[in-house]
Specification:
single chain; 291 residues; alpha/beta; eight-stranded mixed sheet; 12 helices; globular
Length: 291
């Protein structure tokens, strides 16, 4: 049997038998429950689709796989950009892996993979090959963002300055306010907080820059970005930078672990925030089943 047929069959079995949590997808515009089919049907050629995640939530990755599977079923072609592939200079190693010229182990060593299990991502990385697309490393070099977070933008030596995305801008005020809250509010010294936020903004700007560079050279219908949910939610981070750099349309999916949320709090997630507006175009709430 053709290896591509085997891969697709494996994905379908994987999705049917390894989804232990309860999940509900909502369309924010109508605040009504929806389906993956409807989400995919709403996409237009040229869209950039951001699929947020909590990195260690296995159900979130299964949900992402379900969306790519439905895109495949509807004949939608797509590329995938990976936040977790550090960094964009490692694309040569991604290409080698996708072309079958290096093993998974060689590839992960080459890109200095660390942290969360690669098993969460491997199916997402390979799916584009089934529709004539490709997978890309889009994030900033770790040494760049770590240096900025530690000692600020002005501390960058010339070699690191050359790695900055062109026409760099900090995230907007709304994004900074959310970031400050996430970092513990006033518990972080102001100068250090600015350094951290600058590093965060470099992540977003680099991912936006690299995504649009690859999309401009691609014939795929959709460019999908697999990325942490904070970069996606409320539009102030990556969606904002993509649009500022010329993206035609950005569609956002935010995923939330709603296991410990009351019915009222779940309902509030679907309402526009009084300061920040809608969380995303689509919201996927997941819950671990009660034992």
């Amino acid at each position: 049997m053709n290896i591509k047929v085997l891969f697709v069959a494996y994905i379908l079995i994987h999705l049917m038998h390894q989804s232990p949590a309860l999940a509900q997808l909502y369309k924010s515009e109508t605040r009504s429950s929806s389906t993956v089919e409807e989400l995919v049907e709403s996409l237009r050629p040229g869209d950039i689709l951001l699929l947020g995640e909590l990195h260690t939530n296995a159900q979130h990755h299964l949900n992402q796989e379900a969306i790519l599977n439905e895109m495949h079923a509807q004949g939608v072609t797509f590329d995938v950009g990976m936040e977790f592939f550090y960094d964009w200079r490692k694309q040569i190693n991604v290409d080698s892996y996708l072309n079958g010229d290096s093993s998974k182990e060689e590839f992960l060593t080459a890109i200095n993979w660390g942290g969360d299990s690669y098993d969460f991502y491997k199916h997402l990385v390979l799916w584009p090959l089934e529709v004539g697309g490709w997978t890309f490393a889009i994030n900033a070099p770790r040494e760049l963002t770590q240096t900025i977070a530690r000692s600020g933008f002005k501390s960058l030596p010339p070699k690191m300055q050359a790695l900055m995305p062109p026409n760099f801008e900090l995230g907007n005020d709304q994004y900074f306010e959310r970031f400050k809250l996430a970092m513990g509010g006033d518990h972080v010294p102001p100068d250090q907080l600015i350094n951290y936020f600058t590093a965060q903004s470099v992540w977003d700007e680099t991912m936006a820059w690299q995504t649009l560079t690859h999309q401009s050279r691609s014939s795929s219908d959709i460019f999908v970005i697999i990325v942490g949910d904070f970069h996606v939610a409320y539009g102030g981070g990556l969606p904002d930078r993509l649009l500022a750099r010329g993206a035609r349309r950005v569609v956002t999916l935010s995923q939330v672990d709603a296991s410990d949320l009351s019915k009222k709090k779940k309902s509030m997630l679907l309402q526009p925030h009084p300061k920040w507006g809608l969380r995303a175009d689509w919201i996927w709430m997941t819950e671990e089943p009660r034992k």
